[in-house]
Amino acid sequence: MTPEQKLAELGITLPNAAAPAANYVPTVTTGQLMHISGQIPFAEDGSLMKGRLGDTVDVAYGQAAARRCAVGLIAQMKAALGDLARVKRIVKLGVFVASHPDFTDQPEVGNGASNLMVEVFGDAGRHARSAVGVAVLPRGVAVEVDAVIEIA
Length: 152
What we know:
By secondary structure, this protein is α+β, with helices and mostly antiparallel strands. Helix content is 30%, strand content 26%. The protein has a five-stranded mixed β-sheet with strand order 1-2-5-3-4. The mean pLDDT is 97. This is Endoribonuclease L-PSP/chorismate mutase-like domain-containing protein. InterPro entries: Endoribo_LPSP/chorism_mut-like, RutC-like_sf.
């Protein structure tokens, strides 16, 4: 099953890839590696998923936000590559979680993004990952995720 077929099976329609919000590009490819700029979580209705984990939102909300960041990453892959079958491996995800100082479940929040990568890309979706807590993220969002992927 292709990644596009898997997305359809999961009921996920990719949004248009988000345009950069400042002076950077969405993707940079060097050799076989593509670096994808951090994606913030847009809900299916286009609104931003805002909040701070351990304060105004819970882990389940954070996981849903991380999953939506992963959808944004896949949209960037599709825009840059044309065909998601060109994704050879998800190499690494960086997960940034807006967190209350006492919140320590960033890895569980990050699973929202990680799980989607495995669902869509199978074994090629298994990756290294960092999940860190930060005081604040752009636009007040709860999570931001960036990625490094290997392409064919």
